[in-house]
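Course assignment 3, question 2. Fill in each field.
Student: A.L.
Task: Predict the tertiary structure for the chain below.
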Amino acid sequence: MNTRLLPGTLLLFMLSVCSIQAQVSTYTFQSDNISYTELVSGNQLGDSLSEDEYFTDPSIPMGSSTQSGIGIPIGFNFIYNGFSYDVFGVSVNGWIGLGNGSVNLNSISPYYPLNSSTGSNFIAGFGRNLQGQNGSSLSYATLGSSPNQVLVIQWKDFRKHGNVGDRFNFQIRLYEGLNRVEFHYGQMQCNINASFVTVGMIGNDSSDFNLRGTNNGGWANTISGVSNTATCTLNPSTLPDNGLRFWWIAPPPCTSPPTPGIASSSLPTVCPNNPFIVSLSGNSSGPGQTYQWQSSADSLNWNDITGATTLSYSSTQVSATWFRCSVTCSGQTAYSEPVFVDFSPPTLCYCTTNLGGDCMGYGSIDSVRIVNTTLANLGTGCSNLTSPNYSDYAPGVNTTTTLLLNSTYDLRVTTTFNAIVSVWFDFDRSGTFDPTEWYQVNVSASPNVVSSTLFIVPGTASVGTTKMRIRCRAAGTPNGAIDACTNFFSGETEDYTITLDDGTGIQSYESEASLFLAYPNPATDHISLQPRTALHNAKIEIHDLNGKSEYSITSGNIMQGNSTEIDLTGLSSGIYILTCRSNEGIQHHRIQVIR
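Answer field:
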C-alpha cells in the first residue's frame, strides 16, 4: 500500500530532520588500519595538470576557478551536522564541501579552509596547496546499492605545489545511512621539504570544528585539535601509514523525554561580582537536545537567562540565587535539580590572609582618626590583632562612623616607625579594595607624627556598610594602589567597618545629646541654627540628596545662647542635609524646604 504524505506532514518531517542537529564538534573520532582500496574506475575530475581548480558543476568535468555551482550529485541524501545534503564540490587542494541543490566552496583560505568563516560544511582529508603531476588523477564514484551506498572521492599521486618527489594518495568517503565520514590513506611519499596539512571537518561556521593534530605519536596517534587551525605534520618520516583510516560519526539523536540531570555550582557561596560556574551533570544528550538555564530568587518563580543555552553558565551575582536548567528534546522539557548559590555580604569578602607584616618587631599603626566623625581609634599599636599583623575592628564607639556621599573628610594616621601609609575605601561595596579606591596617606611618615590626607566620598558610592583598610610598611618599599592584598614583610594592616549614606537615612533630631537645634523644620525662607554648647571653628553646609552643595559658610565661633540664621530663599522645595562641623564634632540634620 502506498502512503501519501500531505504537504503539512512533509514539512513537519523535514523540520524534524533539520532540528536533530549534531554539531560537528560532537562527532566521535576513531582511527585504525585497513587495506587501502584504490578507485580504479570512476568519474574523472582532474588530471596531471590540475592546480587550484574547483569542481562544482558536472558539465565542467575538468573544473574551473568558479567556487560555486549546482554541485555534483552524491547519489543519496547524506546527513551532516544535522542537515541533509545531496550534492558536493571538490577542491584540488584536498577537500570537499557539501550542499543541497547547489554548493559553495568560497573560503578565506583555499588551502586550509577549515579556519574559514565565509564557507561552511567543509571536509578536508589532506588540505593544503596541492597540484597534479605525471600519473595524477582526481576522480569520484558512488558505489554499492541503496541503502548502503558510499561516495568515494580520490586523489591519486598528487604533490605539494612546486615540489618533486611527492606521491600522495588518499580518499574522502561518505557513507549512506551511517552518515559517517572516512579518510583513507594509501601509499604516501614526501620529499625533504617539510610542511603540514589540515585534516578534519567544520560545520555551518568555523566555530564548529573537529580537527586532528599530530603530536609525538605522529599520524598513528593524532590528538583532537583545540582550535580550527590545528594541523598535521608532513615530512619524510611523519606520514600516514598505507592503510590508515580516520573516521567520524555523529552521536545518536536525543531521547524524549530527556533526563535533565542535576545542576551544581563551582562555588556554594560567592562574594559580589565573584565569577562562578553552574553546570549540568547526569543529563541525557544527543543531537536535537537544547538547554536553557533559569534563575530564581525563591525557587518558585523562574526566569530564562538570556544567552545561557549550553551545558554550563558563567555568572556573577549580588544576591542569593537559585539556578536550574530546562532540557528539551522533541518538544518535551524536563527541569534539572536546582542548585542554590548563596551570597556573602561584601564585608566578609575581603582578603585577610597572607597579608604579611611585622607589627611586633618592626612597627605598627598607632592611631586612626577621621576628623569630625566618631571614628577615633587612638593608641592601637599591636595589642588588638585579629591575626598576626592584622586587625579587623568591630564597630564600636570609636571604631566606626557614617560618611556622607559627595563629602570631603580628613583622615589622620600615626605610626610607631618610619613608614609608607596607604588607605582604601570600598566605595562600590564590591568586597574588594580597588586601585581607584586608594589614597596615599604618606610615603615617609615619621614615628608618632600625624600624617593626613583628604578624601572625597564619591556621589556614585554604594550606600550601606563597607570597609576601610589602612596599611603601613617600611618607608622606601611599595605600598600603592595595587597593594591592598600584597604580602608585606613589615608593618601592619587594619580594617574598619564604616557606613556610607546619601542623607536619606539621617533624620532630624533634637535630643539632649545633639550639638545644636535647627528650626523651624519644615522651613520656608530661613532656618535658625541654635547651639546647645559653644561651637568653635564652625562651618555650616547644606547639600541636596545628590550631594550637591547648596550653601556653605564658615561662621567661626558660635556661642551658646546665640543663633545663626541661614537664608533658604535660593533653595527649591525638597529635602536637604544641614551639616555643622566644629571642634566639638560633626552633626547632620535632615531638613525640608517648602515653597
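Instructor remarks: The chain is about 0% helix and 45% strand. The helical segments are 7-19.
Grade: pending
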